[in-house]
Amino acid sequence: MTAETEKLLDDTGWQLLQAMQRNARLSFSELGKQVGLSASAVAERIRRMEDAGIIRGYRVEIDPARVGLPIMAFIHINTPSNKPYSYFAAAAKEIAEVLECHQITGSDSMIMKVAVSSVKHLETLISRLSVYGRPTTSIVLSTQVAQGFITPQSLLDAQAAEREETQK
């Protein structure tokens, strides 16, 4: 973490980030009331956090079930060793059902979060994906944590875990 990033992540910076993670539509004025700054000071801090890459963007969260995609699943792909990961990643970007795609460690190469309209739709998607490797699928029954937040405690826990590892 750079000195500039540390400076931006003081108590007020974290308060801003937490408020924005809960509701990114809050005005600078409302955010300022919550953290004790003027709207212009909040705007400047947020601009600096964006410039530093701490805040990467703002987006709308859509309920897939409400738009006709009630089935969520995770599909692991074990890609052939003779194919680069970029081969599959490029294809995943073009598949409308893919919400997220991550390169992972372990016996599989990639994991995708997908949203589909039916089990038949999922079956068709799995068939399409099988040309890239062996798929393994898990259907989401319920979601226990929809969106976790990054907090100062997250950072402290990570630092403590690192210290613990180096002391072993």
TrEMBL record:
UniProt domain HTH asnC-type: residue ranges: 9-70
One Gene Ontology biological process: response to amino acid
Keyword Cytoplasm set for record: no
Gene Ontology MF: a single term: sequence-specific DNA binding
Recorded superkingdom: Bacteria
Keyword Nucleotide-binding annotated: no
Pfam families tied to this protein: AsnC_trans_reg, HTH_AsnC-type
GO terms under cellular component: cytosol
Alphabetized UniProt keyword annotations: DNA-binding, Transcription, Transcription regulation
Protein name: Lrp/AsnC family transcriptional regulator
